[in-house]
Amino acid sequence: MTVRELLSGSGLPDHEARRLLAHALGRRPASFTDLLVADDVAELYGSLVKRRLSGEPLQYIEGTVQFGPIELLADRRALVPRPETEELWEMVAAMLVDRSPEHIVDLCTGSGNLALALKHEFPHAVVHGTDTSSDALDLAASNGARLGLHVEWSHGDLFDALSPGLIGNVDVIVANPPYIAEREFADLPIDVRDHEPRAALVAGPTGDELLRRIAADATSWLKPGGLVACEIAATRATAAAILFSHYDAVVQADGAGRPRFVVGRSVSN
Ligand SMILES: C[S@@+](CC[C@H](N)C(=O)[O-])C[C@H]1O[C@@H](n2cnc3c(N)ncnc32)[C@H](O)[C@@H]1O
């Protein structure tokens, strides 16, 4: 079959079909041409299209995703890093630029995206990434090894994963925790609901469970004036601002103008 036939007959949006054909070919195909594609490549492409049509995220199929300055491995062990989380990284990196952070903590690290992008930006900092999922931590560790970036990965429930020696010594805590309420899960797009880990998405009955615990405990781990910055659900931004009110927190919008981040400072110790 030709490139033109393969692209037009996939049933996928054109840009997705092109990406999958590029993946199968190992290079970007020339636009709609009558170039013949080898049978084995066409077969591989067909199997990739099938996976995508079943809702599997494009990034899992391609196996990689770009996050700020770094390329990460992506598979079903962890959430696909999102563009808005990249905005969280950018915002935190900009706030830290004159501060030479010593200890950075990324709670709920997943693929390690925030931890690794922060390590990339602040190579002298000791960066700690924690998660309750061993699968996610395995992926994060592979990402770190592949990028040559050293992060201390630790398994456990939020702050329980950290060494008590860090209490009062952390410059910044970032987190993109699960923040979906149980009742919202069924309404998520199929790509997300049926393919990404449920534990990465659902926080509990209200969706605020993890954020509430981070807000309660972050202050004792932060240095005075240390930063806490979390991704939040746009629909519960007011609740998040209240949870973090003792950090003089502000809610920040993402590039689309939706309130997606809460950012504050430790003012109480
Ligand atoms: C929304 S995903 C975020 C992953 C990654 N930081 C990102 O931005 O793509 C949330 C992550 O939190 C982890 N998680 C869920 N409950 C946790 C808990 N109690 N303590 C630590 N990590 C938890 C999940 O395994 C998942 O990897």
Topology summary:
Blueprint: H1 3-8, H2 14-25, H3 39-53, H4 58-62, E1 64-67, E2 70-73, H5 83-96, E3 103-107, H6 113-121, E4 126-131, H7 134-147, E5 152-155, E6 170-175, E7 180-181, H8 190-193, E8 202-204, H9 209-221, E9 222-231, H10 237-243, E10 250-253, E11 259-265
Helix pairs in contact: 2-3, 5-6
The structure holds S-adenosylmethionine.
Main features:
single chain, 269 residues, alpha/beta, 7-stranded mixed β-sheet, 37% helix, 20% strand, binds S-adenosylmethionine
Overview of this structure, please?
With 269 residues, this protein is α/β, with parallel strands linked by helices. The chain is built from ten helices and eleven strands. The strands form three sheets. A seven-stranded mixed sheet has the order 5-4-3-6-9-11-10, with helices on both faces. β10 (250-253) and β11 (259-265) form a beta hairpin. α2 packs across α3 and α5 packs parallel to α6 (113-121). The termini are far apart. Bound molecules: S-adenosylmethionine. Residues 78-79, 81, 85, 107-111, 113-114, 130-133, 136, 157-158, 176-178, 199-200 line the site of S-adenosylmethionine.
Count every helix, treating DSSP H or I runs of 4 or more residues as helices: 10
**Helix and strand string, N-terminal first?**
HHHHEEHEHEHEEEHEHEHEE
Q: Any idea what the radius of gyration is?
A: 20 Å
Shape: elongated
Please state roughly what percent of the residues sit in beta strands, choosing from under 5%, 5-15%, 15-25%, 25-35%, 35-45% or over 45%.
Answer: 15-25%
Q: In what order do the strands lie side by side in the largest sheet?
A: 5-4-3-6-9-11-10
Structural class: alpha/beta
Query: How is the main sheet built?
Result: 7 strands, mixed
Helix content: 25-40%
Say how many strands there are.
11
Q: What small molecules are bound in this structure?
A: S-adenosylmethionine
Unreliable runs? none
- Average pLDDT confidence is 95
